[in-house]
């Protein structure tokens, strides 16, 4: 039993290390491209409540972690965009692979950054489906559930959200 627990722990640590070893690294960072459907958004638990039904809404998905410096630096811009598009039926969702043991750190970060939207922890299935290899990583999804912009797209996230809202 002890050996099984050690193997599971080692496997989870290896998965987390390979998924997020490149925090803020330049170059091809993976991730689903424009035109791909948003996979199901699931998490082991949520901070700031669960996300609403996403059907027919513009969605901004932000993959991040408490230990990622570039993720922390991006938070004020995400808060600004959340406030700007608050009345436009735009849903922001944060996702991290960090588990339940990190909930106090997650809660502390989202509170100090002024993040008020749902943030899922233990979201490994969704992050894997999004093909996340580096963080921060962000996707803008249109009302039809298709990705219209990601962190490697040309143009700005703000323009992508505005364009998706107009559709």
Automatic annotation (TrEMBL):
Molecular functions per Gene Ontology: oxidoreductase activity
InterPro entries registered for this protein in UniProt: Redoxin, Thioredoxin-like_sf, Thioredoxin_domain, Thioredoxin_ResA/DsbE_sf
Coiled coil: none
Gene3D superfamilies per the UniProt record, alphabetical: Glutaredoxin
Domain Thioredoxin intervals: 32-167
Record's signal peptide: 1-21
Top-level taxon in the UniProt lineage: Bacteria
PROSITE patterns assigned to the protein according to its UniProt record, in alphabetical order: PROKAR_LIPOPROTEIN (PS51257), THIOREDOXIN_2 (PS51352)
Pfam families from the UniProt entry: Redoxin
Swiss-Prot/TrEMBL keywords: Signal
PANTHER family given in the database record: PROTEIN DIPZ, THIOL:DISULFIDE INTERCHANGE PROTEIN DSBE
Protein name: Redoxin domain protein
